[in-house]
Amino acid sequence: MISPETAELRILDAAETLFYGRGIQAVGMDEIRSTSGVSLKRLYQLFPSKGELVQAYLRRRDVRWRQKLAAYAEAQATPEESILAVFDWLHEWFGEPDFRGCAFSNSFGELGATSSAVAETARAHKEAFFRYLTGLTAAAGKPASLGDHLALLAEGAITTAAITGSAEPAHQAKAAARVLLEAA
Amino acid sequence: MISPETAELRILDAAETLFYGRGIQAVGMDEIRSTSGVSLKRLYQLFPSKGELVQAYLRRRDVRWRQKLAAYAEAQATPEESILAVFDWLHEWFGEPDFRGCAFSNSFGELGATSSAVAETARAHKEAFFRYLTGLTAAAGKPASLGDHLALLAEGAITTAAITGSAEPAHQAKAAARVLLEAA
DNA sequence: CAACGGAGAGAATGCTCGTTCTCCCCATCC
DNA sequence: GGATGGGGAGAACGAGCATTCTCTCCGTTG
């Protein structure tokens, strides 16, 4: 028997791949089981309902996504470079073969109206992202409004890249961000 | 008996209210029937499957949405004012009580991975929107890249307004748009 | 060794939903 | 008037799915 920790990891990995890749309602618990290799009994012991598994998936993805973004941005030499690096990181993300847009926007569109938990998780994710960008602009001595504007650009690039299937919106957003950054 | 044209209108109105308001998979054909007052038999005569009804809903919404935007923008005196008016129009839209983001982004997030028809309709809508904005910037003697940048801002504002439940992103996007417009 | 408790496989349950079918009514036409 | 055809209401069908239950197996403990 695999350890509970390993089982939980496998379940969350399967949930992330499947929920993100195909949508939450399109994936049944049976498919989570077969992909993770963890029996339904154990699955329900660890996550008492599909809704709780969805929340766990979203929470873990939120933390990881923002950590990866922060690690990339913080590897830059100056605050200005960190800001522009956000859009380089987006470009890399958009190019990943399984990229399908923002997991939070997608789950909000799918379930936001019926699940307040999903709606709230999406809201918290976007708020954290906006706060992160305003933190970067503050470090560069720029106003918080610039952070909001850059966040809107990034948000738009994510949606547009997902729907058009192109990574180009990241470059477009970066060019616009550069103009805003220099004007601020 | 109501005329086929009236029945079709009622069905599409019900579909739009329900699909947009709660998500496509969350709404059953039975609810379309009870809301529209059109019997299931006639419903299936006019739209042979739920998928076709979804496509009809999206197609009509695409046309109407872009018409309303264009009417608002074209009521302005100068090309520059038309461009900025796009964001005023967004602000009005965000303030509507049933606003729940972009119907195309939402349906893409929900069904884009499983339905190529939905994915394609969403893509066509975004492309038309981008083309409309680059047309506005061309009329103002500005490069097409400005149109793309403004479209990203608008797109980000829509998503952010939907998730946070605030109309404020329209104002933020307009402020950023003004900077980009004056710099271009 | 024998009882036990927890684990896996997967069947069973109960519900939802897309789609079709049945049955009945009524307006039209001979 | 009586046949007919199209329409409405809603039951029926079949599939999918979240969740639970059953049965069997095996490792542990006394």
Structure overview:
The structure is a homodimer of 184-residue chains. With 184 residues, the first copy, chain A, is mainly alpha-helical. The first copy, chain A, folds into two domains: 1-48, Orthogonal Bundle (Arc Repressor Mutant, subunit A), CATH 1.10.10; 61-183, Tetracycline Repressor, domain 2. In chain A, 79% of the residues lie in helices and 0% in strands. Chain A contains nine helices and no strands. Chain A has helices spanning 4-22, 29-36, 40-46, 50-74, 79-95, 103-111, 116-139, 144-164, 168-183. Chain A is elongated and about 60 Å long. The N and C termini of chain A lie far apart (58 Å). At the A-B interface, helix 6, helix 7, helix 8 and helix 9 of A face helix 6, helix 7, helix 8 and helix 9 of B. The first copy, chain A, binds a DNA duplex (30 and 30 nucleotides) through helix 3. Chains A, B: Keywords: DNA-binding, Transcription, Transcription regulation. Chains A, B: Residues 5-65 form the HTH tetR-type domain. Chains A, B: This is TetR/AcrR family transcriptional regulator.
From the 3D structure, determine the CATH topology of the largest domain in chain A.
Answer: Tetracycline Repressor, domain 2
Q: Give start-end ranges of low-pLDDT stretches of chain A.
A: none
Number of helices of chain A: 9
CATH architecture of the largest domain in chain A: Orthogonal Bundle
Largest interface: A-B, 49 and 49 residues
Protein name (chains A, B): TetR/AcrR family transcriptional regulator
Pfam families (chains A, B): TetR_N
Organism (chains A, B): Streptomyces rugosispiralis
DNA-binding region (chains A, B): 28-47
